[in-house]
Amino acid sequence: MRHTGGPRGPERIRPGLERILAACEMTGHPERAFRTVHIAGTNGKGSTACFTDAVLRRMLAEPIGLYTSPHLLMPEERIRVGGEKIPPDDFARSAGKAATLSECVAERVKEPLSYFEEMTWIAFDWFREKEVSLAVMETGLGGRWDATNLCLPVVSVITNVGRDHAEWLGKSLKKIASEKAGILRENTPAVLGRLSPSARKVVLSVARGEGSRIWEMDRELRWEECPKGRISFLLPGISLERIKVRMQGEFQRHNALLALAASWIVASARGVTEGNFARAARLALGDASWPGRYAPLPGKRNTGAWVDGAHNPAAAGALARELAKRRSGGKTERIVALWSMLVDKDIAGFLKEIASVVDGVVAYPMEVDRAASLPVLSSALRKEGIRYREAKDFADGWAIARRWAGKKGMTIVCGSLMAAADAYRFRGGRVG
Predict the structure, then answer these.
(1) pLDDT above 70: percentage of residues in the chain
(2) CATH code, domain carrying 355
(3) pLDDT tens by residue, 19-73
(4) Domain total for the chain?
(5) Based on the domain organization, do 206 and 325 belong to the same domain?
(6) Rounded to 5 degrees, what angle do the CA atoms 159, 163, 167 make?
(7) Does residue 245 lie within any of the structural domains?
């Protein structure tokens, strides 16, 4: 997922804010030049950030920043202002500044900035340079020790809490929830997605301790299905009726609801009228798209091929529910997964979720660090009793999966955002 023009810091995860704090102190605190809608969660962060950015850009007459991770093809995808990626030349210049800064940080705190910390500093600095007053920022991992947690939030969002990155966040949902609740701030509104009872108890305790006003899905926040695939969103003080949501999947309706809640909080604080907010919401949700998240792969020659970056059991379960709907609705005759995963993910847990909804799996090894080997992938498939075939790489796997699915079948690339990136890279799909 690297790029030759990007940051050069080590990619290994290192908890702690001392490095990014030192970097910001040395450069006049760029993270304090703007306020933030801060988004954490196990799944759905990127889509929620995309929805939020889309609403805010149509609602406010000012440049809105967006910072997400990871990227699919190019690191510039992570940093946007007004919907436009940071230009490559500006990104290369900023990456050079970050590399020099990292050396200075190492002299002060004995460690250089990590890749993600360099990238986060570039976003801070770019937003300051572009005179952004409000940015949407997605955490990279957890929350408490995430580099983005230096931001100044106007609202904090936790999409959900599931098991992932256990080696850093803990194995229990309580521990993971505590880490994600680390983004909550004193007297700052909190928007919460659907949480398990144990995670909810932890997050609510932290939120109440901070004096946060709390809006929760299934309580203050709800959505309802309408005829012709339209959705009504019900928020405190406003209802948005029969809106078209471009992104597909029930889970995207959850993400859209959280984004609308966060945006409505911003709108209320900025004096935006209900009519202007509703207009912005309708336009944004009908237009917003987020590549690699349960989306058809662009291009006529890719008809019948979809991509989903699900990489943990919770996300795999959401994907499985969507695939089951396609099958029961008669939209596809056969579903074949073109699949790969990172070796440190819950491979068995992922497969248990999709086993009953796919007709077969084509396994291939990704060409990235931490990628699971083909023997590891095949062994997991055998243990789960899933019909499978092996491929030496993505291109080989694509040919096998497409033949197996047939013209009236569906090929779903899944298991990792790196696998999603392979689909866009090798099949010519654009990432906006």
Answers:
(1) 94
(2) 3.90.190.20
(3) 999 999 999 999 999 999 999 999 999 999 999 999 999 999 999 999 999 999 9
(4) 2
(5) no
(6) 120
(7) no
Q: Using the 3D structure, point to which of 217, 241, 264 is the last residue of a domain.
A: 217
- Are the C-beta atoms of residues 322 and 298 closer than 8 Å to each other? no
Question: What confidence category does residue 4 fall into, taking pLDDT thresholds of 50, 70 and 90?
Answer: very low
Cβ-in-10-Å burial (0-12, 13-18, 19+) of 178 comes to buried
By the 10 Å C-beta count (0-12 exposed, 13-18 middle, 19+ buried), 39 is classed as buried
CA-only gyration radius of the chain, Å:
21
> 383-407: per-residue pLDDT in tens?
999 999 999 999 999 999 999 999 9
The answer on 333 and 196 residing in a single domain is no
Residue 104 counted as domain residue: yes
Residue 330's pLDDT is 82
Q: How big is the CA angle at 148 (ends 147 and 153), to the nearest 5 degrees? A: 145
Question: pLDDT tens for residues 115-174?
Answer: 999 999 999 999 999 999 999 999 998 789 999 999 999 999 999 998 765 665 666 899
Model confidence band, residue 1 (pLDDT cutoffs 50, 70, 90) = very low
If asked whether residues 211 and 326 sit together in one domain, one would say no
Give me the sheet containing 410-414, strands edge to edge.
295-296, 305-307, 410-414, 335-339, 360-363, 388-390
53 domain-assigned: yes
**Which of 89, 91, 56 lies closest to 77 in space, CA to CA?**
91
180 and 302 assigned to the same domain: no
Domain assignment of residue 230, yes or no: no
Whether the CB-CB separation of 149 and 117 falls below 8 Å is answered with no
Task: State whether 213 and 299 are in the same domain.
Answer: no
CB atoms within 10 A of CB 119: 27
pTM above 0.90, yes or no: yes
Report how far residue 295's alpha carbon sits from residue 286's, in angstroms, rounded to the nearest whole number.
15
Instruction: Answer with the one of 217, 251, 273 that is the final residue of a domain.
Output: 217
Angle at 370 between CA 122 and CA 117, to 5 degrees: 15
- Same domain? 31 vs 119: yes
Q: Residue 133's domain spans which residues?
A: 18-217
Return the structure tokens found at 175.
């521990």
In this structure, the answer to whether residues 64 and 206 fall within a common structural domain is yes
How big, in percent rounded to 5, are the helix, strand and coil portions of the chain?
45, 15, 35
Contact criterion met (CB below 8 Å) for 414 and 306: no
